[in-house]
Amino acid sequence: MTLSQTGPKPILGQSAELTHILRTLPMIAMSDASVMITGETGTGKELIALSLHQQSRRGTNELVTINCAALPNEDVEVDLFGRCDQEGNVTFRGRLLAAEGSTVFLDEVDALPLSVQAKVLRFLEAGECQLQGSHRLHVADVRILAASSADLAAEVKQGRFRADLFYRLQVVPVELPPLRERKEDIPLLLKHYLREFSGSNAVVRLSREAENCLVTYTWPGNVRELENFCQRLALLNAGQLLQVGDLPKEIRPEQSSAQHQFTLPANGIDLAGVELDLIEQALDMAAGNRSKAARLLGISRDTLLYRMQKYNLTP
């Protein structure tokens, strides 16, 4: 499934997890509810935010992106909300107030200073804020989307993030799976980005073995890492057919006699039966807690629910 964007980076994928997310975006976009987008770095959180904005009633206005980790060390409150003079006249409209009628995307929201989190919470709840130098409340019609690659629940427990702001942001949670959990999308992404970066040159081709190697690679930087990798290949290997030996060392499989984690019996196995058995074991060990069971299996909660439905297990 592909969701087209006006920018150069579409959201690409055919995996069940990503397809489910893309199908829910139009419904989420029609609401003004705040959305918390989580996922590892490079999974496409900003693209999801852009898609939600473009499909909303505010889509004719420009999406305002604020990287909370890049906010100035001083005057964060002024940068976000603004300032008034002694007479109460607005002398500077902060980025939140200046986004009137549009959508604000708070990227890396976990980096938002505690000193302004209460004001951001008030803005979320009522669209109100008190500008520096004024006792009068100012109101703006703005929708808030937020994203983080951190474990915000853990940040709340550590006292580094307000619990009330966390729950107010997470009215609608969207969790993006890492690329290693949607390997079936990797060939599609490779084909797209190799063609995109080829420009006027011949497109880089991959042997079946090289493509299989890239599919089994864990991609710690997710789609962003894959995109940068394809750009490098297109620049240095235009028109070539690449073999496994042509790939970077960190991506190639170990050439030593590495031991497999599981040994396939000579008479084969029932793969579906093994998967079902492991899911049932994980659910038993987690006492039915699906989030814990998903962690035991090394997959996302959405992936677990999808596979439970596949085997008609009671959710």
Automatic annotation (TrEMBL):
Record protein name field: Sigma-54 factor interaction domain-containing protein
Transmembrane feature ranges: none
SUPFAM superfamilies per the UniProt record, alphabetical: Homeodomain-like (SSF46689), P-loop containing nucleoside triphosphate hydrolases (SSF52540)
GO molecular function, one term: ATP binding
Keywords: ATP-binding, Nucleotide-binding, Transcription, Transcription regulation
Keyword Transcription applies: yes
InterPro entries tied to this protein: AAA+_ATPase, AAA_lid_NorR, Homeodomain-like_sf, HTH_Fis, P-loop_NTPase, Sigma_54_int, Sigma_54_int_dom_ATP-bd_1, Sigma_54_int_dom_CS
Any single Pfam family the record assigns to this protein: AAA_lid_14
Keyword ATP-binding assigned: yes
Organism: marine sediment metagenome
One biological process term in Gene Ontology: regulation of DNA-templated transcription
Signal sequence, renumbered to the chain: none
Domain called Sigma-54 factor interaction: residue spans: 11-235
PROSITE patterns: SIGMA54_INTERACT_1 (PS00675), SIGMA54_INTERACT_3 (PS00688), SIGMA54_INTERACT_4 (PS50045)
Source lineage: unclassified sequences, metagenomes, ecological metagenomes
